[in-house]
Design a protein that fits this description.
The protein is α/β, with parallel strands linked by helices. The chain has one domain: Vaccinia Virus protein VP39 (Rossmann fold), CATH 3.40.50. The chain is built from eight helices and seven strands. It has helices spanning 21-24, 42-50, 63-75, 88-93, 98-103, 128-137, 151-162, 189-196; strands spanning 31-36, 54-60, 81-85, 104-110, 143-148, 167-170, 202-208. It has a seven-stranded mixed beta sheet with strand order 3-2-1-4-5-7-6, sandwiched between helices. The N and C termini lie far apart (41 Å). It binds S-adenosylmethionine. S-adenosylmethionine binds next to strand 2, helix 4 and helix 8.
Length: 209
């Protein structure tokens, strides 16, 4: 299976119709978390099963992975989880999706693709315009979590988010995970691999002020 798709390709100009939160979830009033680049959604399945007082939404650009996640979801009894296929940058920059941003408690970018070559930096999911769009539309007090094992990518992402005047860095040691979208510190697939291989993990939390 292809590991990367080019998010700038015309294939991703269009995306599926984004339905209302009431149609996505059994109880649309629950706290809402968005995971960008959720792959097969295993992390979100694990979260949704345990934290039934949260709703979880995943966006993933690889269609086959989203199809698999949707089939698994249909076969389960989970009602606080939903997946959308497409380029997160396009979907969340569209006016029709603003209600998602307006209702979020938190967003995670877990181990996004590094796109190492300089000429491919524009393919990175974190771009200053995109972060600006997110930071304008999310509520005050909403959190953005970033995590990666690539130090260079971390520096780039941290610079991009820190430069945004709507966001403030939160000291991890002062952060109360027990009230967050991931109270049990469940790990993503990539995170498990990174930990097993004893690579470093670089992470940061930002809050909308
Ligand atoms: C390295 S994988 C990490 C998967 C998962 N978050 C984890 O931690 O195990 C990065 C994922 O982000 C997805 N992705 C990359 N750019 C994206 C974009 N613009 N919109 C949505 N998903 C994207 C990739 O297809 C891939 O599944």
């Amino acid at each position: 299976m292809r590991q990367h798709v080019n998010p700038l390709s015309n294939n991703f100009d269009k995306f599926e119709k984004i339905i209302s939160l009431k149609e996505m979830f059994n109880d649309s009033e629950l706290n809402l978390h968005l995971d960008i680049g959720c792959a097969t959604g295993e992390f979100l399945f694990n979260l949704a099963l345990v934290n039934t007082n949260w709703n979880y939404l995943g966006i993933e650009i690889r269609e086959r992975l989203v199809k698999t996640a949707k089939v698994k979801l249909r076969e389960s009894k989970i009602e606080n989880l939903y997946f959308v296929f497409g380029n997160a940058n396009k979907i969340l920059s569209d006016v029709q999706s603003q209600f998602i941003l307006n209702n979020l408690k938190s967003i995670s970018f877990n181990f996004p693709d590094p796109w190492f070559k300089k000429r491919h930096y524009k393919r990175r999911v974190i771009q200053s315009d995109f972060i600006n769009t997110l930071s304008i539309s999310i509520k005050k007090g909403a959190f953005i979590f970033i995590k990666t094992d690539v130090e260079e990518l971390f520096k780039y992402m941290d610079f991009t988010l820190s430069s945004n005047l709507n966001l403030k860095k939160i000291d991890k040691n002062d952060f109360n995970y027990s009230t967050s979208f991931n109270p049990n510190r469940i790990q993503t697939n990539r995170e498990k691999y990174v930990i097993n291989n004893e690579f470093d993990i670089f992470e940061m939390i930002y809050m909308k002020i």
